[in-house]
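A student in our group prepared the protein record below, which I am reviewing. Here is the record exactly as it was handed to me.
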Amino acid sequence: MRLTILREPQSPAADPATLALNALGWVLSDEARAGRLLALTGLSVEALRAGLDDPATLGAVFDFLAAHEPDLLAASAALGVEPGELIAARERL
């Protein structure tokens, strides 16, 4: 008899860059929130696009969420992760 072990799908929290990109997608889904991200980070749309593989740019997304608890909580709920996972992912970039 052969047993099969079923595993849960890997959480996006396992890869901090993937989690950051998912969080960025959440941020950009709201025009006002997207504008606030650009204003507070000093990033332009072009710099944001160019920096999608840059840990500093991805870290800015986590920093943006960490600075405003309502966004942190809403993003974590939308992404299906704990708020602490978003904060911890920043450290792993």
About this structure: Residues 13-92 form one domain. The mean pLDDT is 90. The first helix runs from residue 16 to 28.
